[in-house]
Design goal:
The chain is α+β, with helices and mostly antiparallel strands. The chain has two helices and eight strands.
Length: 182
């Protein structure tokens, strides 16, 4: 009986707060990266199955990308990415946890507005602080967050063999786009 009373109390006390939070999410977020070098084959991939959760009450967000979800134009390049660079069997996901600073949902309209985004990107077993500018807009009940930033593979202990080092950029351009619904 005591356990049941505690459960009823817990539900009555905390569920209203959880339900009031303005949570937006998607499982169809998009991340593209490019590490191409002029005069060589394109080194670029896209992942269209990125999960994102955004709390519009406080601007906090979490992003999860399964590394095997990145698709390349050349199958062999995708195989090398998964086996030799990202080592997806050992490090299957990339995670970003952060927030949009000074975010207020009331300020978001159809016209994109800039917000500073800060957080931590964990990739290949290493974490790195990321600070960037995100563009946020609204379309109906959907919040759209887009932006891009640069990272260095070396910051995540991703080694590029000397045989191909001239064909892969030292900095990787990463672009993201999330259309989040309630």
């Amino acid at each position: 009986m005591i356990k049941r009373s505690f459960l009823v109390f817990f539900m009555a006390a905390f569920v209203p707060f959880v339900c009031k939070a303005q949570k937006f999410a998607t499982k169809k977020g998009n991340i593209k990266f490019e590490a191409s070098v002029p005069s060589f084959e394109e080194v670029a991939a896209e992942n269209k199955t990125v999960s994102t959760i955004f709390n519009a009450d406080n601007g906090e967000m979490a992003v999860l990308a399964l590394m095997k979800g990145f698709r390349f134009k050349v199958a062999l390049m995708e195989e090398h990415f998964n086996e030799s660079y990202a080592e997806t069997a050992k490090y299957p996901k990339a995670v970003f946890k952060g927030s949009l600073e000074n975010f207020r949902q009331a300020d978001v309209t159809e016209k994109p507005k800039q917000f500073k985004i800060t957080g931590e990107l964990t990739l290949h077993g290493k974490a790195k602080k990321i600070t960037d500018t995100a563009m946020v807009s609204k379309s109906g009940n959907t919040i759209i967050i887009t932006g891009d930033f640069r990272v260095k593979p070396a910051d995540f202990d991703i080694e590029v063999p000397s045989v191909v080092s001239k064909k892969v950029a030292d900095e990787v351009q990463v672009a993201y786009s999330f259309s989040l619904d309630k």
